[in-house]
Prior knowledge:
- One of its GO terms (cellular component) is multivesicular body.
- Keywords: Coiled coil, Cytoplasm, Endosome, Membrane, Protein transport, Transport.
- The chain has six helices and no strands.
- It has 235 residues and is an all-alpha fold.
Amino acid sequence: MSKISKLFKGGGSASKGRGGPxxxxxxxxxxxxxxMLSKKQEYLETRIERELAVARQHGTKNKRAALQALKxxxxxxxxxxxxxxxxxxxxxxxxxxxxxxxxxxxxKNMGYAAQAMKKVHENMDLNKIDDLMQDITxxxxxxxxxxxxxxxxATFGDEFDEDELLxxxxxxxxxxxxxxxxxxxxxxxxxxxxxxxxxKMPACHFTFLMIKPCSSTRKRAEDEDEMKKLAAxxx
Length: 235
């Protein structure tokens, strides 16, 4: 019985009791087969070189021995070609099995993930989630309104109309101006008659006329200064 037959026969008996080999076991068997066939290739290549050397050695001196060597070489070459085809088939099967095993593991892990997601979502209610998101949105709006209210400039004392205040200020200025005009005293008319012709004015009359107008002018200047100070303070 060949090694390949023993290999697959042993694999069949082992897998029969367990309901089929696992992907790892099958891949291990395929790699063992590839290794065995590779060694067989090396052996055949060596035999081919040897038979070729024998054929050259005998040549035309011993045609029978040379032809027998060439015939054996041809058989070895045929076996070598068969092994090359077998290795290609096994390699293709091994790659397909590896891909299938990978896909199986991927699907298995995806199934685990789906079960985990299902378990996580068991206690979740979509209606409760909608209510929660609505509450979050409302609280965000409230927080934004509070932030806007805090950031606005304080307007304490700005509830008065500025035009009314200016009008009141003008009335106050006018009252002060009128009061200043009432305090101005005009010089009294002298009781003595003026001279009929130009001449030297008496000293007393000159002194009287000079003192009174000077006092009134100083008073008016002081009133104007007071009004300017008041206007500056009000503005």
